[in-house]
């Protein structure tokens, strides 16, 4: 699976049906959906993953599982996204094989270089702006480090954290290849329309 050149990734919300949200995001033009639910059981994740994966394949979009290499492996998912405290990308690569997309969250150029050396295909940089979708223990990075992270890794950078319709263009102008959002879509009155607006901004 090859990453699109520029794209919007919609991450499922902890409080909404992930399958329903994924469908609306895809209807709005999202090219990647990431299944994330920290409190779910392995069985729940597997069942959601199978349904979301089918939706993604119908629309030629990328399906990514957050953290859980075992679920990604069982589903033959397009990819997995790993945090700094998860299984190293090198270990995930040995399990998932050369064709699976692996993303790694970083907050510095040094972490980005390490992720690249471990076999990552893209970098998740953040959090860029203040966000309430996930508890954070460090301050926002802002947009300035995005280009540095992209240069250090040589990989596509997916910016995440507090990104919305008002600040997305600043993120893309700072060197991001793509943007990942949660509340900008899940918290919208019309998630399909919100997704479509974000996608259009990415390509402006």
Strand content: 15-25%
CATH superfamily: Aldolase class I
Largest sheet: 8 strands, parallel, barrel
**Broad CATH class:** Alpha Beta
Secondary structure category? alpha/beta
The order of strands across the largest sheet is 1-2-3-4-5-6-7-8
Q: Rg, please?
A: 15 Å
pLDDT < 50 stretches: none
Description:
The chain is an alpha/beta fold. The protein has a single domain, classed as Aldolase class I (TIM Barrel). Helices cover 41% and strands 18% of the residues. The protein is built from 9 helices and 8 strands. It has an 8-stranded parallel beta barrel, surrounded by 7 helices. Helix 7 links the parallel strand 7 and strand 8. The longest helix has 17 residues. The mean pLDDT is 95.
Identify the notable features of this structure and list them briefly:
TIM Barrel; 204 residues; alpha/beta; 8-stranded parallel barrel; single chain; 41% helix
Topology:
Elements lengths: L6 E5 L6 H10 L4 E4 L6 H17 L3 E5 L2 H7 L3 E4 L6 H8 L4 E6 L2 H9 L4 E5 L17 H10 L3 E4 L7 H6 L4 E4 L1 H4 L4 H13 L1
Parallel strand pairs: 1-2, 1-8, 2-3, 3-4, 4-5, 5-6, 6-7, 7-8
Helix pairs in contact: 1-2, 1-9, 2-3, 5-6
